[in-house]
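Below is a filled-in request sheet from our internal design queue. Each sheet records the structural input a requester submitted and the sequence that came back. We keep these sheets so that new team members can see what a complete request looks like end to end.

REQUESTER: design group, bay 2
PRIORITY: normal
MODE: inverse folding
CHAIN LENGTH: 253
BACKBONE (tokenized):
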């Protein structure tokens, strides 16, 4: 009976984690370039006691936090600092902890200090993994390898000049990428590969999150039903245990 209860509780913990992932995905469905979180590959471990296994089972998380690398929908915006990556590849950003990370977010802007940042305020990095800074400009053009050319305001009538490049990378398919505790994409060792400028950049385009809200809502409903079934199993196990205890009691009188 103890094993039945702990098995049910383990299933409830799995359902809870999946529901958290689903809520996270739905909350970010409008964030450009967001990568859909996938359920963790988890297992169970039984406590050992006197060189034997007990009935106490607990959930384990195995492997890195996974996410979907499928491309999101592309929308042409015509904005000169909106960019997206066609098919595979990533941009580089500087995360809040000062470490570089990979990103697909391309809603860019020039800040007052000249640094190019995305919609989350993260500086975009160049091939040297330093923040990209551009001067004030009258017009801007971006190439399909991430080069930024501008007509600078302080040089009217001059030809457009190269002022920066957005670093990109197409990772080796064998490289396992994961989301860290800060929600940023890196490899399982917390590092990023070196830029190789092989991704194709689409200027004037934004990539949406690769999330299907209908699928997420249906999955959430199914998870809720599984959770309710698990709760009924726990209740049933309790009732069976109580009834069994009463049968073993000595007759009164």
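RETURNED SEQUENCE:
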């Amino acid at each position: 009976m103890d094993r039945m209860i702990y098995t049910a509780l383990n299933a409830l913990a799995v359902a809870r984690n999946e529901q958290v992932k689903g809520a996270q995905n739905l909350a970010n469905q409008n964030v450009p370039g967001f990568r859909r979180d996938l359920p963790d590959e988890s297992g169970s471990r039984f406590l050992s006691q006197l060189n034997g296994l007990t009935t106490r089972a607990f959930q384990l998380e195995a492997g890195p936090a996974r996410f979907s690398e499928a491309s999101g929908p592309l929308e042409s915006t015509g904005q000169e600092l909106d960019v997206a990556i066609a098919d595979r590849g990533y941009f580089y950003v500087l995360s809040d902890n000062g470490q570089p990370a990979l990103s697909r977010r391309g809603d860019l802007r020039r800040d007052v200090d000249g640094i190019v940042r995305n919609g989350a305020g993260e500086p975009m990095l160049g091939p040297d993994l330093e923040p990209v800074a551009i001067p004030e400009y009258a017009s801007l053009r971006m190439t399909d390898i991430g080069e930024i050319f501008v007509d600078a305001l302080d040089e009217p009538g001059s030809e457009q000049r190269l002022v920066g490049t957005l670093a990109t990378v197409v990772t080796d398919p064998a490289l396992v990428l994961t989301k860290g505790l800060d929600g940023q994409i890196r490899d399982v060792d917390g590092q990023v590969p070196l830029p190789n400028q092989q991704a194709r950049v689409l200027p004037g385009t934004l990539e949406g999150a690769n999330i299907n809200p209908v699928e997420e809502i249906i999955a959430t409903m199914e998870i809720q039903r599984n959770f309710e079934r698990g709760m009924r199993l726990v209740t049933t196990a309790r009732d069976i245990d109580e009834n069994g205890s009463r049968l073993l009691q000595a007759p009164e009188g």
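SHEET NOTES:
- The first strand starts at residue 41 and ends at 49.
- The first helix runs from residue 2 to 27.
FILED BY: M.R.
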